[in-house]
Structures are given as structure tokens and as C-alpha cells.
Amino acid sequence: MKRENWNTREKRREAERNTNQLAELLKILNHFFPDLRIQLLNVKDPRKKNYATYETDVILLERILAYIFGVSSMNEITERFNTEEALANFVLLAQRHKISSLPHGDTVNDFLEKLEPEEIEKIRNNMVKRLLKMKCFDEYKYLNKYWKVIFDGSGIYKFDKKHCEHCLTKTYNKGTEEEKTVYFHYVLECKLVVGELAISMGTEFIENPEGEFEKQDCELKAFYRLEKKVKEKYPRLPICIIVDSEYACQQVLEICKKNKWEHIIRFKEGSIPTVAKEFEELKEYGGDITIEKDGRIYRYVNDIEYKGYKVNVIEMEEPEKKYPFRIYGVEKNR
Hints:
- There is one protein chain.
- By secondary structure, the protein is of the alpha+beta class.
- 38% of the residues lie in helices and 25% in strands.
């Protein structure tokens, strides 16, 4: 392809400048989420009615638009969303006849602090289910059947001093003059992976009342809580979970079997040593299957026994890289 035909960043920016973003947003909302405004209006309002100036849909839609357009500070929300043009556009989005002003950023924050998280979660789940029902992402199913779902932890806030009683801690350079303790908050996210998109299906805050943060223990404890919520919200959804090596344990396999979830678990040195040992031995004696494709070498062994389960192990090696990449594959013989 000639360079002048490339879809460069400059061309994408030019296309964005020539796009009526309000019209595009309205198309998306009307097509995919026609009842979103009603859902925003029907959340359980935690405020006293006598002190509520703005309805819940106005406050929540303003916060959603702030995220969409990259508005981060409360002052910026107040300034940018209370111009005549912004108010006129907001009337179209909110499906209202007239809005004289939008709430101050601090008002939005105060409302969100009081609002029960479950109210927002219900709306998120309804949106995800709507997209699945419309078959928007069917082409991205694994083996034309399973939805790829990842569980992964992510840090969201970091502090030099203790922020609250739920802070996690991590100490670096223990016992030295450079010892430092960092305080932070960490969440486990369940995300539906479709192409280049990762859509949130569930969130669980990771709290560690026992002391210093240990990634494996804390993530697993959060996973045991989050998987129940995901199964409850999506009871019949055919899922293949994709997780890191800390999930390579019997309890996670039992959960997958109970939930009828397939699974792909990344291998790391030390993960289920008995499985790793048998895989290496079978490779040494020619018990594996080797395929070369696109400059990569794939080796796999099926049906390795592990505490009553049949585990498939796949190894991919790129000759130019030092370390292979291994995963525990989909369990067979359910």
C-alpha cells in the first residue's frame, strides 16, 4: 500500500475535526441504548428531595459526557458545560425541552459519593446485555462459541501517605535507608474482550486487612467474590476466562467447572509444578505435537492429569526471543 493511502494519526485527527461528534453520539445512543436516559432517571436517589435541584439523569449524563470528552476537573466541568452551545446540545442528549444550567462539578461529586455503586452497576450490566442481545460482537467469539473474558487487577490510586483504612501497602527496599512504603487502591476487573475493545462486566475492590499487599493472594480472594457476581448476572453466557498464572490452582479450576466456564491460564515458572514437569518430560521423549508457523514454534500436550482434571498445555516459542510463552489450555472431558 502506498504511503498516501495509509490511515495515519493526522488523517484520523482530520476525520474527527470533520465529524459532527454530537450527531454521532446521538446515533449511538438511539440505536444501542435508547432507554439509557430512563435508566439514569430511575436510579435510587440518595438525596433528600427538598435539597435536590437536578434530577438524577442530568447529573449522571453530565458525568458520562465529562468522561467521553476528557474533562477531568470539577471546575472544567462547570465552565465547559454551562455555555449556551453546551446546554443546547445537552437538551438533545437528555431529551428535555429546556435546561437553564447544569450542576456544578462539586454537586456531581457529592451526588456520586452518596449513590450506591450497585445502581451504576445495574446500568452497566443492562448495556452489556443489550450489546450481546444485538449480536454486535458475535464475530469475536472464541471457537465461534465462547466469549473471551479476562480477570485482571489494576491499580487506580497511589499515595505517599495513608489515604483511608482500606489502603493497601507495599514497602520497597526494606531494611535500608531507602525504605519506602506506598499506599494505594487496587481493583479486580472482569472485562469482555471483543477485538480491540475491553468492556467492563464487573468490578471488585481489593482490600487487604491483613497487612502488606501480596498480589496473588489479594487478587485470588477478590476473584472468588467477583466470579459469583459475574455468574449471577450472566448465568447462561458461554464464557472462556483468560487469566494470569496466579490463577493456576485447583480452586479456580473447580470454579470453572461449576460455572461451566472454559479457561485459558498463562503459565509461569512455579505454576502447578506437576503439570509443568510432565509437560517437559513428554517433550523430551517426543510425546508432544510440534507445529511451525509464521516463524513461531508451537508445542502442545493434551490431557495431562491434575487432581482429577484434564489439562492441555500449549507452548509458543519465537526464535528471536529468549523465553517461550505457555498457557494451560481448555479443559477437556467435562
